[in-house]
Amino acid sequence: EDAALGAGAREVFLVEEPMAAAIGARMPIQESTGNLIVDIGGGTTQIAVISLSGVVVSKSIHTAGDVLNKNIIQYIRENFNLLIGDITAERVKIKLAAIYPAEKPVELAVAGRDLLNGLPKEITITDAEVRDAIMRSIKNIVTNIKSTIEQTPPELVADIYRRGIVLSGGGALLKGIDELVKKETRVPVIIIDDPLTTVVRGTGLILEDLEGLQDILIPSAR
C-alpha cells in the first residue's frame, strides 16, 4: 500500500491473496458455490474457502516453500555435517522432492562447506532422504487443509467435494502433493496450469474488471 501511494497512485485497493489466486485460477468466486483454493507460496500457504465474493473460512500458515528449503538445509547439516545455502536447497527440492518414492531411486550431488574442517565438500543425497527432511512440513500443510474443510459450512463442503480442491503456487509443483491431499481429504484435487503465476494473473484480471469485481476489493485506509 505504501509503495503504491509512494509511486504516485491516486487510489489504492487491497485484495486478499487467496482471492487473487482463486480469480487467477478462474474459479467462480462470485457464485454461491463453495470454492477451496490452496496457494502454497514461498513464505506462506494460504488456504481459503470462497463463496459469493467473500472468504468464508481461511488459514494462513508459514509452512511453505521457504520452510521446505530450511528443512533440507537442516537435514543435510545434521546428517552430513555439510552447510549449504538457500539456492542449493532450492535446487535439491526441485530435483528430488517427491511425496512418494520413484520407480528408481534418484540421487543428486550437492556441494557445500564441511562443518568439521571448513573446506569444500560434496555429498550425494537421495530422493528418500529429501522426503524424510520435508514430510513433517508437508503433513502440517495437509492437516491445515483438513482443518479448514472441517470449519466450512456443510452446504459449501458438498460443493467442494463436487468441484475439488485447487492447488496453486510453487508448492503445487511438488511431485505427488495432489495425490496426498486427495488421499487425506477424500476430495478431488486439481493443480492449476502454471501455478507459479496464479496470484499475478488474478491481480491482472482484477485490474481489467475493477467495476465488476468491486465487491472483493478492500479500500485503502489512507
Automatic annotation (TrEMBL):
It is found in: Cytoplasm. It comes from the Bacteria. One of its GO terms (molecular function) is ATP binding. Keywords: ATP-binding, Cell shape, Cytoplasm, Nucleotide-binding. GO terms for biological process: cell morphogenesis; regulation of cell shape. It holds the Pfam family MreB_Mbl. GO terms for cellular component: cytoplasm. The keyword Nucleotide-binding applies. Belongs to the FtsA/MreB family. This is Rod shape-determining protein. It comes from Candidatus Kuenenbacteria bacterium CG_4_8_14_3_um_filter_39_15.
